[in-house]
């Protein structure tokens, strides 16, 4: 007996054979089994591009696809490429776009007329939690101490992180709001890359730093930085760092990444792609990549993912407005 998605998947493959034999056009969704197009609204080398290349590697290793074509269109947190995906890739059932939380924020700060909801959400795949660090010689030993200083004088607590309005900045705003501090009063210093931010933290030029765990983990392990808190929902295996919630700061944040089909695909194409991505996410090859890359798998698909996008957009929009960026 097959479940509904397996039945649909096999039916789609049958339709391909029937179409090829009878001379009819092959359904676009079915072509994803032979060829897949991945749209990355970012330049090569970044997190979204790494996700796309990992998907390509896994699908080929699991014999789930014959060819994969990756197209990169970078700029402005994905808002340069998004219009192209929505308008030019419309109705292509063998196509996926990689995107994530950063794009949600970029769309809001850029006041773009487009929204991720104009695509077809397929699956949330991974999430990277954030970490708050201080220099090893900092007087702050935990979040209680840092929050107390923030409450006493928000302007004297400076935070190093990535671009203004990005994940790091959003986390700072959320921490401030949870502590009862006006987010616009926070002193956030945006850096173009992890290197300059690390130098500022290690040099004592800022009070604290915020980034993904992978950015600061080596400095923490080397004893040059002290990790105060993770933004995850629970403690992470192998990382002896408490969460924000454990320390009385009611904040949870994942820098998630997922995949989206273009607008205009049929319900059958959407369901076939969901089943396809679910099969990939369950493969041993994907699980191995998660482990190797220190990615946290937070799979969520279909309607549930679409609802998550809607709620996440509202949450991030509120924080960015609090920061004066919305």
Task: Give, in order, the helices and strands.
Answer: HEHEHEHEHEHEHEHEEHHEH
Total of helices: 11
Q: Radius of gyration from the CA trace? A: 21 Å
Task: Specify the structural class.
Answer: alpha/beta
The count of β-strands is 10
Give the percentage of residues in beta strands.
15-25%
Mean pLDDT rating: 89
Summarize the biggest pleated sheet: 10 strands, mixed
Q: Please state the overall shape, judged from the principal axes of the Cα atoms.
A: globular
Regarding CATH, which class of the largest domain? Alpha Beta
Corresponding CATH superfamily of the largest domain: Bordetella uptake gene, domain 1
Residues in helix, %: 40-55%
Terminal-residue CA separation: 51 Å
Features:
single chain, 326 residues, alpha/beta, D-Maltodextrin-Binding Protein, domain 2, 2 domains, 10-stranded mixed β-sheet
